[in-house]
Amino acid sequence: MPRTRLLGCVSLCALAVALPAFAQSAIETPELLVTAQSGSLVTPNVEAARRDIQQTPGAVAVVPDTAFKNTPANTIRDVLGWVPGVITQPKSNVDNRVSIRGSGLTRNYGNRGVNIFMDGIPINTADGLFDVFEIDPSAYRYVEVFKGANALRYGSNSLGGAVNFVTPTGRDANAFEARLDAGSFGYVRSQASTGGAKGPYDWFITGSAQREDGYRDHSQSHMERGSANFGYQFTPDAETRFYVNLNSWRARLPGEVTKDAALNAPRAADSEFVRQDQQRNIDSVRVANKTTLRFDATTVDFGVFGVNRHVDHPIYRYLDYRVNDYGGFVRATDDRIVGGFRNRLVTGVNVHNGTIDYEEFANLTGAVKGALLFSTLDKSQNYSAYAENSFYFLPDVAFVAGGQFQHTIRERQDRFLADGDQSGRRTFDIFSPKVGLLWDVDPTWQVFGNISRSAEVPSFDVNSFASPASTNVEAQTATTYEVGTRGRRPDLTWDISLYRANIRNELQCLTAGPFTPCAVVNADRTVHQGVEAGLGIAFLRSAFADGDRFWLNVAYTYSDFRFDGDPAFGNNRLPGVPPHSVRAEILYKHPSGFYAGPNVDWVPQAFFADNANSLAADPYALLNFRAGLERERGWSGYVEARNLFDTRYISSTIIAGNATPTAALFNPGTGRGVFAGLQFKL
């Protein structure tokens, strides 16, 4: 596999945590809110994005690029791993399971339950699935995280909410940045970007390439990713922006193994995955346009997008399919004084439709395509309309009410009738209301609470037309209760949320045996409740030099997910996620830009791999260390060591109903690794 070389760079940050920074009070006049958006009108800068997101009466976060670009920036975990409540479980190389508040936990391959956007354009396919390989951690200015129904502004109301990755524009990018990263397990990555503005025009272009042999056998991968956006300002109150995103990924899959193999031979691949040469190869192209118009106290955003994705995926069968998605959106935000009271109304419509031209073949030895076994044309239609109004009945307290109506169609045309006609059509109409309160205690401190409903429609791989046993798989719905607080003081940041979601018909994808697809069923009643807590504290200021300090970061997630009186599993814990997850770091920062410190990843309690709670992954703790030099311009660099004690552990599982001790359900965690990077910024 040839080594790709493409210079890249970023600025490094001093903080290790992606705790959301509470920028300023949301209690300001609409005029002040408008002028906060300097630079691009379509894409707010980091401070404007923070200001805007803090008007949500629920758990949200803005993760600036300074929180993740001083890492190997390899996976989505490098971006979101410090956001409490966001579960990122490595499988192999860049592939991670992503879950928020337990969404999509039993999704064994690919991901669902969270709506992922890039510059407000969906990454998910129209039926709800997404792959994380398209997420290039070095390409973004900041990331917005909306947990649960707090993602209403994006028209999404899944249990997990939404994550929006926002790229720089030519109005806030450096003229040139470049970086080169290398490390253990054959990891080499390069990236470069350029941006600028001239009069009403601006542009930003970035590209990256990477390869890695992988910690495990049969896990080699390489990928190339590029994105660009071009903006034009007609007037200070009117701007349009065009986006292009290109991605290519080639990866071999090592497969899940037994618990004994995961802990005692963690680098070995499953022999059947090797025999079939199981792979995941994806090429995708995404184009979009977004336009923003501002009329006094009202801002209107609208856009269109199209996505083409080809997946060549030899696994237990040889999957070969093409995805063609298209859609658009209109969103209006009106923020004005009405009768002496501030009132903010956000309303919009989203359309996301698409087709999947899907075929399955026999997978002969060595990823050789055999006879056709399954062929369908799957069509998805998703229409949603939403509104959310924040009425400040006191200068610092807002009552927030809103809702979303979604109309969803799933239609399958069976083109392979040798095993019977599995054509069909299903329609879902769901209304999800929301109410909440937002209190700005002072300009640095907020308290919030809300009650919301969410819904998730089954994706096509549920095979909801395939047999009578799966025809009755229904949409998953939940009612969530949430309270919390967030704030930022000079030496203290915090973000704490407590929630409980009562779920009906939770979608579970249960593995029946080795080398077979999981079967999707509805659990009757389940409960997801927990605590999401982030804390940052500065201490020992000027201990060794004027202006230096130590910074303590802690991100804690408590996940109490259970069946609720299930006929088969009683009140057992739901599998796939540890009850407690802790990340903590002490980082020393010097005014010169030097930083260094240890951090830990700690899972103090076992978590189950099956509904019967008969097979579990063991607790573990990992010690890591990083150091580097950050500068605004010129050269910067870092070195990072992970899993210093080479601890053997299980990072993720696939899920079964009743597992045996020899069930191949586990993905071994990565052993000791050292990574380093060099960056240049002009």
Largest sheet: 22 strands, antiparallel
Q: Give the CA-based shape.
A: globular
Tell me the name of the CATH homologous superfamily. Answer: TonB-dependent receptor, beta-barrel domain
Q: How confident overall, as mean pLDDT? A: 89
> Architecture, CATH level 2?
Beta Barrel
Textual characterization of the structure:
By secondary structure, the protein is mostly beta strands. It has a single domain (30-681), classed as Maltoporin, Chain A (Beta Barrel). Helices cover 5% and strands 56% of the residues. The chain has a 22-stranded antiparallel beta sheet, with no helix packed on it. Strands 1-6-7-4-5 form a five-stranded mixed beta sheet, covered by helices on one side. Strand 9 (187-198) and strand 10 (201-212) form a beta hairpin.
Structural features:
about 675 residues; mainly beta; Maltoporin, Chain A; five-stranded mixed sheet; 6 helices; disordered N terminus
Furnish the topology, listing elements before pairings.
Blueprint: H1 30-35, H2 46-53, E1 60-64, H3 76-80, E2 86-92, E3 95-100, E4 115-118, E5 121-122, E6 142-147, E7 161-166, E8 177-183, E9 187-198, E10 201-212, E11 221-235, E12 238-252, H4 259-264, H5 271-275, E13 279-295, E14 298-314, E15 317-338, E16 341-364, E17 368-394, E18 397-414, E19 424-442, E20 445-456, H6 468-471, E21 476-489, E22 492-510, E23 519-539, E24 549-563, E25 580-589, E26 594-603, E27 607-608, E28 616-617, E29 620-629, E30 634-642, E31 650-653, E32 666-668, E33 673-681
Parallel strand pairs: 4-7
Antiparallel strand pairs: 1-6, 2-3, 4-5, 6-7, 8-33, 9-10, 10-11, 11-12, 12-13, 13-14, 14-15, 15-16, 16-17, 17-18, 18-19, 19-20, 20-21, 21-22, 22-23, 23-24, 24-25, 25-26, 26-29, 27-28, 29-30, 30-33, 31-32
